[in-house]
């Protein structure tokens, strides 16, 4: 009988993706301070362990070497003394033979081992038998059963002197040394961890201040700079962060000022539009007194002009808002072509104003649309202030230092000395310009375009008495 497949209730969790690894709920990375402390402890622990291991191996080798040298010297002294067999007689005290930590015996080939009555027999094996029967010159070994070091030297025909000494005192010394190294190593690791914590706390204090500042900025948008002390890498980082805060504060202030100025500039045309529309609507109501045809035409012309002014203002605001956009990759720009396109557009709305033009080839990398808008704004500004029948002079010439200038001058009233430093500011309009149409943003757009291309703008007086506006741009002759 075939079983039915299980039916989903709709509450089961979807199966995990094949490449998706489950993440622990309480996964948490160590803080930087903890990592510095652990790094210091691990480094010191590894260094202490390495030094302790080398020291222990060196000391152990030296102790065993000294132990063997001492045992060999005693064995040679015993072999070279008075006849050995006489030393084991009852008449000679065993204390005179060797020191009490030595077990000594005389092994005769085929006759067994003889040793002092008050002493203990040394362990004997095949190695000692080989020395006794003359097949080996000497032997030195460790007896595993008794943990003793055993040496055998020939002491005459068919016999060997056997000496044995316990390794227990030497191993006890090594065990004590091992304990001391372990305790001092552990203490060193603890001290290193404490020192690492102190260093991390002191070294990361500027980072903590920086972190607190960023959290404060994110929480309150308070862009006050952080106090800086010292002249290390963290201090330079704080300086850089303060520079960034100042740039953000400046950008924020310029945006706030732009919105305030835009609101102020929009208020006038919107108020005028509302007034004219209310009059037209009131005149169109039933029973209302109709407007004269002349008055109606004037109102409609005012509305059309105000709509044009609003359209231009909004377009200029959008252009200025591009200041915060990321810069796109520039392209090769023939500045003569850009100027000629702007000149064609300016001529169509210049009326009777003539243009005196001199252009030299110039090429740069940039945004042709932005440059064209900047040149057109200069030309429109010159036409607006030029008397009827006068000319506007346009020059594009190289300065010979890797830059070229676009100069636009007119025969108008010029710019007052007190207005020269301010003409490129947003919404700034001189007293002479307040009665003329315009948003007060045209020259600000010119300045922005020049700066985004690595150039600059200047305002001055022309030889004919009018205004002289100059854009200076880097590039090469075309």
Biggest sheet character: 5 strands, antiparallel
**Residues in helices, as a percent range:** 40-55%
Number-wise, the strands total 12
Question: Which regions are unreliable across 5 or more consecutive residues at pLDDT < 50?
Answer: 1-27, 89-98
CATH superfamily of the largest domain: Histidine kinase-like ATPase, C-terminal domain
Strand content: 15-25%
- Number of helices in the DSSP assignment: 10
Order of helices and strands: HHEEHEEEHHHHEHEEHEEHEE
Average pLDDT level: 79
Task: Explain this structure.
The chain is of the alpha+beta class. It folds into three domains: 138 residues, Beta-Lactamase (2-Layer Sandwich), CATH 3.30.450; 86 residues, Orthogonal Bundle (Helix Hairpins); 149 residues, 2-Layer Sandwich (Heat Shock Protein 90), CATH 3.30.565. The chain is 49% helix and 16% strand. It has a five-stranded antiparallel beta sheet with strand order 2-1-5-4-3, with helices on both faces. Helix 1 packs antiparallel against helix 4 and helix 9 packs antiparallel against helix 10. The longest helix has 52 residues. The two termini are 89 Å apart.
What is the topology?
Layout: H1 32-79, H2 84-87, E1 102-108, E2 112-114, H3 126-132, E3 139-143, E4 148-156, E5 159-166, H4 168-203, H5 205-220, H6 233-284, H7 293-321, E6 331-334, H8 335-348, E7 354-359, E8 363-366, H9 368-385, E9 391-398, E10 403-409, H10 442-452, E11 456-461, E12 467-474
Helix pairs in contact: 1-4, 6-7, 8-9, 9-10
Quickly list its features.
478 residues; alpha+beta; Beta-Lactamase; Helix Hairpins; Heat Shock Protein 90; 5-stranded antiparallel sheet; 5-stranded mixed sheet; 49% helix; disordered N terminus
């Amino acid at each position: 009988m075939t079983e039915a497949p299980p039916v989903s209730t709709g509450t089961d969790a979807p199966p995990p993706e094949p490449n998706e690894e489950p993440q622990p709920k309480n996964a948490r990375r160590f803080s930087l301070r903890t990592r510095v402390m652990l790094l210091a402890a691990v480094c010191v622990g590894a260094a202490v362990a390495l030094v302790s291991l080398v020291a222990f191996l060196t000391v152990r080798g030296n102790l065993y070497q000294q132990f063997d040298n001492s045992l060999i010297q005693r064995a040679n002294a015993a072999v070279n003394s008075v006849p050995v067999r006489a030393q084991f007689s009852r008449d000679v005290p065993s204390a005179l033979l060797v020191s009490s930590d030595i077990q000594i015996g005389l092994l005769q080939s085929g006759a067994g081992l003889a040793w002092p009555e008050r002493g203990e027999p040394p362990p004997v094996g095949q190695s000692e038998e080989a020395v006794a029967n003359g097949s080996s010159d000497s032997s030195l070994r460790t007896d595993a059963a008794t943990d003793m070091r055993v040496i055998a030297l020939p002491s005459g025909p068919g016999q060997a002197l056997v000496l044995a000494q316990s390794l227990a005192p030497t191993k006890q010394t090594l065990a004590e040394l091992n304990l001391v190294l372990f305790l001092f190593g552990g203490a060193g690791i603890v001290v290193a961890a404490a020192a690492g914590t102190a260093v991390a706390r002191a070294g990361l204090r500027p980072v903590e201040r920086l972190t607190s500042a960023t959290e404060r900025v994110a929480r309150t948008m308070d862009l006050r700079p952080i106090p800086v002390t010292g002249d290390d890498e963290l201090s330079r980082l704080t300086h850089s962060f303060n520079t960034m805060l100042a740039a953000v504060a400046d950008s924020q202030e310029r945006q706030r000022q732009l919105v305030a100025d835009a609101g102020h500039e929009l208020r006038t045309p919107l108020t005028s539009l509302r007034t004219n529309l209310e009059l037209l609507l009131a005149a169109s109501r039933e029973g209302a007194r109709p407007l004269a045809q002349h008055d109606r035409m004037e109102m409609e012309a005012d509305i059309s002009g105000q709509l044009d002014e609003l359209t231009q203002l909004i377009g200029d605001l959008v252009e200025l808002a591009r200041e915060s956009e990321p810069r796109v990759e520039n392209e090769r720009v023939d500045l003569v072509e850009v100027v000629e396109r702007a000149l064609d557009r300016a001529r169509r709305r210049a009326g009777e104003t003539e243009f005196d033009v001199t252009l030299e080839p110039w090429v740069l990398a940039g945004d042709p649309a932005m440059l064209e808008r900047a040149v057109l704004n200069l030309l429109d500004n010159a036409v607006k202030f030029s008397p009827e029948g006068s000319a506007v002079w346009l020059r594009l010439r190289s300065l010979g230092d890797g830059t070229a200038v676009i100069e636009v001058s007119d025969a108008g009233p010029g710019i007052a000395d007190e207005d020269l430093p301010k003409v490129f500011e947003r919404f700034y309009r001189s007293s002479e310009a307040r009665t003329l149409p315009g948003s007060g943003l045209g020259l600000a757009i010119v300045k922005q375009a020049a700066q985004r291309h690595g150039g600059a703008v200047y305002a001055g007086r022309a030889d004919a008495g009018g205004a002289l506006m100059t854009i200076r741009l880097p590039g090469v002759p075309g």
